[in-house]
Design goal:
Elements (H helix, E strand, L loop, with lengths): L1 H16 L4 H22 L5 H10 L5 H31 L6 H40 L3
């Protein structure tokens, strides 16, 4: 009788205080680590996004939800960084002296590439934010 009372008390304490499995705690730590890197990337000025993207890419992931989040966000911000680079190339081409038709056409191509990458980045960063929120919620909710 005393033993079953202790078991019941332990189960009640776990329910009350949110005991979680080792796997759930590991997921929460992983989600937090990825979340901080993604938040830093999202908040960074454009010129700092490249190094922060590489930092996100270097973070290991072990769980399927965390790896999916990392993949979506990495692709999203890779498109964003690519758009910034294409825009910078276009600006450099247009700074060339003289009336260089080829440079102008090349710049127009770079701007078109930048627009396409930004459109993809916009959609994917929204998916990244949604996936990040979902992972945070699932990692913090007790089983």
């Amino acid at each position: 009788m005393l033993r079953s009372g202790l078991v019941a008390a332990a189960l009640a304490a776990c329910a009350l205080f949110g005991c979680r499995s080792e796997e759930k705690r590991a997921l929460e730590i992983e989600a937090d680590r990825l979340g901080k890197a993604i938040d830093a990337l999202r908040a960074a000025p454009n010129e700092a996004k490249g190094p922060l993207l590489r930092a996100l890419q270097a973070i290991p992931c072990s769980s399927e939800p965390a790896c999916e989040l990392k993949a979506v966000c990495t692709i999203a911000y890779a498109h964003h960084v690519s758009a910034l680079e294409a825009s910078a190339r276009a600006a450099d081409l247009l700074k060339r002296p003289g009336d260089d038709t080829k440079a102008t056409l090349d710049a127009a191509g770079e701007l078109a590439r930048a627009e396409a990458d930004l459109a993809s980045a916009r959609e994917l960063t929204e998916r990244c934010a949604a996936a990040q929120g979902e992972l945070r919620r699932s990692a913090r909710n007790p089983d």
